[in-house]
Amino acid sequence: MSRQSSRIHEVPDDLLAAIDYCYEQGWTDGLPVVPPILERVDAMSARDGRPAETAIATHPATGLQLSLHTAAVNAVMAGCLPEYFPVIVAAFEAMDRPEFNFHGSTASTGGSAPLLVVSGPVADDIGMNADVNLFGPGNRANATIGRAVRLILRNVFQMLPGISDKSTQGNPGKYSFCIAERARGNPWPLLCEAQGYPKGTSSVTVFAGGGFCNVENHGGNTPEQVLGSVADAMANHGCITLGQSVVILAPEHMGIVAGAGWTREKAQDFLFARARRSVESMKDVGKYRDREYEAQHGEGAHPLASPGFVHRGLSPADILITMGGGDAGGHSCFIPSWSRGRGSIMQHQRIAGAVAPN
Questions:
Q1: In terms of pLDDT, which residue wins out, 4 or 266?
Q2: Side-chain half-sphere of 173: how many Cα atoms within 13 Å?
Q3: Number of folded domains in the chain?
Q4: Other residues' Cβ atoms within 10 Å of the Cβ of residue 141
Q5: Amino acid 3: pLDDT
Q6: Which domain holds residue 123?
Q7: Cβ–Cβ contacts within 10 Å for residue 286, how many?
């Protein structure tokens, strides 16, 4: 039983019956959930230290609020441990900002899912995976933190598939989309440092991400070759928009890029310059239309045509790059943004109260 929405649900004292009851209430993502008994919910919400009724996010369209208590209920159902809870709280505090637009990004036909990138010591403290099989199954923290986000969107904010969530095809990340930035062997400042947080502070970055795009290059041995492959993926006609990008370089690729003395900023500059398509090719596939701008400046005009090209994003700063994955293999990835334009802008937030488990 739980106090979700100020209600206590009495169910038979039987685990399988309780799991079935959660299905009957529509509280699942299609997979079984952990029944949210009071003791577990209270232990979860107590991890934050604020009153359980404290609101941490509000749905911009319906006014529905996420409290620490309802977040804890869903974190329990997802299978989280209490030490994971600060990451979930920080993620929703970041998504609550208008620039992220979590209603639009979870309701539209685009099918995006909130990607969480956890940076800093908390990742190791709670046992997150930043290594082999980074986006795959097998790690409790990664899987259940990401799943808790999905359950909250469903159960608290009522983003229901086929009703309020109108994704055309969806995205496997809608089950869980949470990774840790790899600190071990990372030659660049961690994201939490680049974001300006004090030393020792962890952060979570949230990004309304589309489907995962694997970038394979086992033959490239220069930064230009490796990042050229990434830029080509970023600029493919099916993905290119004015939106932001997330690029996770595998250690093998990072070794080539950073080993040649390239900084994050230089890599961002290179990717932005190369991730582009000609105006002509954009017109050929029907993706180059800015009717309002054209009405003012003439047919074929575009605010980002420079000269005759459209870039992915507005500037190099629109590209988040970091390292993740196993040591072996020339497999990096690009994750495109949601929307045809810039409907959601990634946000980051300090993770408060993150303490290593006993």
A1: 266
A2: 27
A3: 1
A4: 23
A5: 40
A6: 1-180
A7: 8
Under DSSP, is residue 281 helix (H, G, I), strand (E, B) or coil?
A: helix
CA distance 6 to 2: 8
Tell the residue number behind the tokens 């795959």, with chain if given.
Answer: 136
Per-residue pLDDT band for 308 (boundaries 50, 70, 90) equals confident
Query: Cα torsion at 72, 77, 80, 82 (round to 10°)?
Result: 30
For residues 290 and 15, the model is more confident at 15
* Token couple for 181: 């930035």
> Cα-atom radius of gyration of the chain, to the nearest Å?
21
Rounded distance between C-alpha atoms, residue 104 and residue 166, angstroms = 10
Q: Is 249 in a helix, a strand, or coil?
A: strand
Percent of the chain at pLDDT exceeding 90: 82
Work out the end-to-end distance of the chain between its first and last CA atoms, rounded to an integer number of angstroms: 27
For the segment 184-243, what is each residue's pLDDT rounded down to a tens digit?
999 999 999 999 999 999 999 999 999 999 999 999 999 999 999 999 999 999 999 989
Is 115 part of any domain? yes
**Domain for residue 64, yes or no?**
yes
Distances (CA, A) of 260 to 9, 257, 348: 60, 6, 29
Give this prediction's pTM.
0.93
Within-domain flag for 137: yes
Residue 250 maps to a domain: no
Q: What is the pLDDT of residue 314?
A: 87
Residue 249's DSSP bridge partners are: 323
Helical H segments across the chain, by residue range: 15-24, 38-45, 68-78, 85-95, 102-107, 122-125, 140-155, 191-194, 223-234, 251-259, 264-274, 279-284, 291-297
Q: How many CB atoms lie within 10 A of CB 224?
A: 16
Residue 100 per-residue DSSP state:
T
Strand partners, 275: none
In sequence order, which residues have a C-beta less than 8 Å from that of residue 250 and are 6 or more positions away? 323, 324, 325, 326, 329, 330, 331, 332
336 and 247 in contact (C-beta within 8 Å)?
A: no
**Sign of the torsion angle spanned by Cα atoms 335, 340, 342, 347:** negative
Give the pair of three-digit tokens for residue 259: 């080993």
What is the DSSP track for 3-18? -GGG------S-HHHH
Burial (0-12, 13-18, 19+ Cβ within 10 Å), 296: exposed
